[in-house]
């Protein structure tokens, strides 16, 4: 049962698979959601409102949702070249994002040591927003660069 | 890999847009292939050769870096 499911899944992937999942128009919807959430986040920072921390977290999450919609939406001209560039951008985003998350606390520690700020502390921003936004931004950046250059 | 897609296109009096519609890819993909920035898949190479009624080797050729 499990083997046959895996086999049909692999066959489906061989024929192109389900990714990207949603149509091109969602790319714009995703951008609008992300930009609106950025504007809302800025207004929360500028205006003094009740439950500011709650709204800050909420809008940061909405930014991620908007960017995620952009990432999983199809491109205007979807073909084998775009598909190849997409997977290459995913690989670059994964490696660069992971490297940054791993190296940043070490770099911060070295800078603190050089500046003589003792005792040394382990500083690592492990928030979902930081990690997810790194991956999503790097993917979108590399995908746009590859599309223009390759 | 070198290719003569632009030559074959000129022989058949086709624009990049015509070729892209005929083989079902974007015009940017044809442009990338012609400028040797993108190496097409075997399926796409065969489609291009079939459209121009030539052998794949007449359109695509390995160069010294391959």
Q: What does this 3D model show about the protein?
A:
- The complex is a heterodimer of chains A (150) and B (66).
- With 150 residues, chain A is an all-alpha fold.
- Helices cover 76% and strands 0% of the residues of chain A.
- Chain A contains 5 helices and no strands.
- Chain A has helices at 2-14, 25-46, 52-72, 80-115, 128-149.
- Chain A starts with a helix and ends with a helix.
- By secondary structure, chain B is mainly alpha-helical.
- Chain B has helices at residues 5-11, 16-23, 27-34, 42-52, 56-59; strands at residues 2-3, 60-61.
- Chain B has a two-stranded antiparallel ribbon.
- The radius of gyration of chain B is 11 Å and the shape is globular.
- The interface between A and B is small, with 9 and 13 residues.
Number of strands of chain B: 2
What global shape of chain B is seen? globular
Instruction: Write down how many β-strands of chain A occur, each being a DSSP E stretch of 2 or more residues.
Output: 0
Architecture of chain B, according to CATH?
Orthogonal Bundle
- Structural class given helices, strands, pairing of chain B? mainly alpha
* Gyration radius of chain A, rounded: 20 Å
**Helix fraction bin of chain B:** 55-70%
Order of helices and strands of chain B: EHHHHHE
As for the CATH topology of chain B, it is 434 Repressor (Amino-terminal Domain)
Rg of chain B, Å, rounded: 11 Å
What count of domains describes the coordinates of chain B?
1
What would you call the quaternary organization?
A: heterodimer
Most extensive interface: A-B, 9 and 13 residues
Q: Which CATH class of chain B applies here?
A: Mainly Alpha
